[in-house]
Each structure stands twice: as structure tokens, then as C-alpha cells.
């Protein structure tokens, strides 16, 4: 029975090569592969059902054809280095990232509650953190069944369980890209003033399109095989989409995510440099709001690794690199996307202590207190003043919940500083001549 199964597999491989052979040399290579398959001792019985046809499609390159044959057999001979497990390493790295990301998100929420400017960008980042931690839990379960060892050393049940968990992971972590980038986009929208409409349109289109692409990829992941068990159980007779089509859309999603990170990093510079801020502060805020571009590095490496494992039969071993980079991309989105929102904490606990009279930062607590004192005076004023529609709109936007708008009023003794965190800071305040 064992020899029969192996022979069938060998004939299958031989037919595959004959269909694609352009010359006698190719056929000879296929015949060598067939003879290797007949040596049934090479292939453990429990792994025979997981053998796929050689995935590479070379016609004219004899070296590439030989490489395909070698790669086809690699997973079924003892790998160099013996039975090694990279699972504990990936689990340790990702749980360390989860701890850092959790602290940063909680600091972000504290800063926002402190200045009463919480928004849906904050809650989207909380959702991203939840998806990130959920993905790491799945990876931890995958490690428990040997999901990051060489496939040669895994039995049938372990392989099926590793495939199933990886299938779930692919669908879950993708949503983290969508919510994370939507959070960064929503944060930038809060900083864009009404005079910068084209930037708002660009960010909105980017949020919607990025979300659509990632959600579609998640849906495609779960519906690519009917029944769904065909994704991890080769004994199930299932109809599945062509692997090439799935990979093409995955590459498209990765490319779109990289582009989204780059655009979200550039957009702030287009409106910050038109604000009434010092050059130093403009540069600092541009860098601060562009930190999310670091996710492009993870995205590029992840795409390269995805291409390298697409034809790797030792898939459990090859999953390590692409998984680390895929989850690290979400980690970078969470941390770098939350750093700008921590500006109030910096102003209050660090900058305020070391530069009490700094004109860039000012006394955070005093400005925070005076802002509310001034608001109370405005509300309690009994005689309304007449203003032009422009100044009327400017006064309303001064204390609006949509932070970040560069605003001036008719009073020349009042200056508004706009921080990347969405906080408005008044450096010099005098009682208004008339109420707004």
C-alpha cells in the first residue's frame, strides 16, 4: 500500500513535468524525480496526503526545473539542523510587542480623557489592539501544535491543526490593517481645517478604499474553498480557487497598504506648513505625524517573505518570517499611530518641568486651566457682540471639538497653539472686550 501510494504520487509528478516539458532534458529531470519518489522510505506515510504537485512553472530553464524538483523533495527528507522549533521565539517577540502596544494605547486614552478630546480614532486603535492580541493568541496555539517546526517532524493531526490555525490567523489579522490605518486617517482628519478640503477628500478616500481592500481579502480567505475544511484537510473533497489568483490579490492588498502608509505620512506636511506655527514646530509635527510610515518597511519585507513561501513545501517552517513581519506591521501601526496623541502627557509631565517659560510649549497646566476659565467667561457674558461671518466662524472653531484648525480671532493679544495631539493651547489670554 505504501509503495503504491508513492508510485501514484511519482506518476502524478511525472505527468506534470511531461505536460510542461519543452525538451528531452526536462523529461529526463522528471524521470529522475519519479525514481526518487519510488523510494518509499523517503516519504513518511502520514505526510503523503500533504504532497502537492510542484508549484513552479518553468519551461525553458533547466536549472529552474531542477530547483523545482529539489524543492519538491525537500519537505520529505530530514532537514539540515534536525528538529528545531522557532515557535517560542516568535511567541516571545510578539507578546513583548503586545505589552508595549497595550501600555501605549492606555497612555493614549489617558491623555485624551485628560483634555476631553476622545474620538473615534482612539476607539479604532483600541479595536486594532484587540485584533493584535487575538492574533497573537492564535499564534501561541499554533506554536503549541508545532506550527513553526519543520513539516517533516509533524504527524498528520499536527499538520492539519497548524494549517487550520494559520487559516484563521490570515483572516483575523488582516482586519487589524484596516482599523489601524483608519484610526491614523481619522486622527489626521481632526487636524485638517475647513480650508484644506482636498486633503480631507484624499484621507477619506484612502480610509474607505483601504478598508474595502482588506475586508475583501478577509472574506476571500474564508470563502476560497467550499467546504471551508478544504483549506486544511486534504482528505476533504473541496472546490478551491486558483492559488495564483489568491496570491495576486494578496500582493495587491500588501501594495495598497504600503501606499496608504506613505500617503498618510505625507498628507500632514501639506497643511501643517500653512499654519501659524514656528518652523521648528512645523518640522517636529510633520515628523511626529509621519511616524506611521515606518509600517511601510514591515509591509515591504512581509510582501517579500510572502513571495518566498508561496512555493515552499516546508510551509510550517517558512511561516515564521512572514508571520513576524505581518504582526510587527500592526504593532508599528499601533505604536507610531498613537505617539502623536501622547503630546499632552509630554507637555504636562516632561516639557512643563524642564522649560517653564518655553514659548513653544508654555505652562501646560496653566494654559489648560485658563482655557476653561476663558470659556466660562465667554458663556457668562451678557452682551453679545457683532462680528462678521468670518470672525463668527473663527470664534466658534476656536473651542470646537474638531481640533487642529489653525485659528485666530480679532483679539491681537490671544495666540492659539495647535498640537499634534489635538489639544489647543492658549499662551497669552486677556479678557475679551466683548463676548463671543
From TrEMBL:
Cell division in keyword set:
no
What residues does the Rhodopsin domain cover? 107-347
Pfam families membership: Fung_rhodopsin
Taxonomically, the superkingdom here is: Eukaryota
Q: GO terms for CC? A: membrane
| Keywords tagged on the record | Membrane, Transmembrane, Transmembrane helix
Q: Where is this region: Disordered?
A: 380-436
What protein does this entry describe?
Answer: Rhodopsin domain-containing protein
Organism for this UniProt entry: Aspergillus hiratsukae
Amino acid at each position: 500500500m505504501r509503495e503504491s501510494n508513492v508510485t501514484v504520487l511519482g506518476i502524478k509528478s511525472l505527468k506534470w513535468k511531461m505536460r510542461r516539458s519543452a525538451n528531452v532534458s526536462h523529461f529526463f529531470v522528471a524521470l529522475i524525480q519519479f525514481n526518487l519518489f519510488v523510494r518509499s522510505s523517503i516519504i513518511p506515510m502520514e505526510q503523503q496526503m500533504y504532497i502537492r504537485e510542484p508549484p513552479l512553472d518553468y519551461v525553458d530553464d533547466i536549472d529552474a526545473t531542477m530547483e523545482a524538483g529539489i524543492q519538491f523533495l525537500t519537505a520529505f527528507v530530514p532537514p539540515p539542523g534536525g528538529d528545531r522549533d522557532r515557535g517560542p521565539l516568535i511567541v516571545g517577540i510578539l507578546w513583548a510587542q503586545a505589552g508595549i502596544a497595550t501600555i501605549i494605547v492606555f497612555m493614549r486614552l489617558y491623555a485624551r480623557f485628560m483634555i476631553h478630546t476622545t474620538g473615534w480614532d482612539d476607539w479604532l486603535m483600541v479595536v486594532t489592539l484587540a485584533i493584535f492580541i487575538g492574533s497573537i493568541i492564535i499564534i501561541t496555539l499554533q506554536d503549541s501544535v508545532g506550527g513553526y517546526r519543520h513539516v517533516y517532524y509533524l504527524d498528520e493531526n499536527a499538520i492539519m491543526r497548524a494549517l487550520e490555525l494559520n487559516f484563521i490567523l490570515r483572516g483575523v489579522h488582516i482586519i487589524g490593517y484596516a482599523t489601524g490605518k483608519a484610526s491614523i486617517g481619522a486622527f489626521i482628519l481632526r487636524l485638517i481645517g475647513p480650508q484644506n478640503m482636498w486633503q480631507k477628500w484624499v484621507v477619506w478616500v484612502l480610509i474607505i478604499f483601504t478598508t474595502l481592500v482588506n475586508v475583501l481579502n478577509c472574506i476571500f480567505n474564508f470563502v476560497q474553498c467550499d467546504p471551508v475544511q478544504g483549506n486544511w484537510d486534504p482528505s476533504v473533497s473541496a472546490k478551491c480557487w486558483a492559488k495564483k489568483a489568491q496570491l495576486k490579490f494578496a500582493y495587491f492588498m500588501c501594495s495598497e497598504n504600503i501606499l496608504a502608509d506613505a500617503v498618510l505620512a505625507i498628507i500632514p506636511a501639506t497643511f501643517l506648513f500653512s499654519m501659524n506655527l514656528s518652523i521648528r514646530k512645523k518640522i517636529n509635527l510633520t515628523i511626529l505625524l509621519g511616524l506611521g510610515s515606518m509600517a511601510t518597511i514591515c509591509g515591504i519585507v512581509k510582501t517579500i517573505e510572502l513571495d518566498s513561501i508561496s512555493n515552499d513545501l516546508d510551509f510550517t517552517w517558512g511561516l515564521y518570517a512572514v508571520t513576524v513581519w505581518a504582526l510587527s506591521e500592526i504593532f508599528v501601526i499601533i505604536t507610531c499611530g498613537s505617539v502623536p496623541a501622547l503630546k499632552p502627557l509630554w507637555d504636562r509631565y516632561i516639557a512643563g518641568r524642564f522649560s517653564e517659560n518655553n514659548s513653544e510649549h508654555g505652562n501646560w497646566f496653566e494654559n489648560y486651566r485658563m482655557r476653561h476659565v476663558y470659556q466660562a467667561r465667554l458663556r457668562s457674558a451678557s452682551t453679545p457682540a457683532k462680528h462678521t461671518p468670518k470672525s463668527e466662524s473663527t470664534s466658534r472653531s476656536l473651542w470646537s471639538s474638531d481640533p487642529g484648525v489653525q485659528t485666530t480671532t480679532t483679539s491681537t493679544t490671544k495666540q492659539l497653539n495647535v498640537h499634534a495631539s489635538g489639544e489647543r493651547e492658549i499662551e497669552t489670554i486677556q479678557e475679551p472686550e466683548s463676548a463671543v
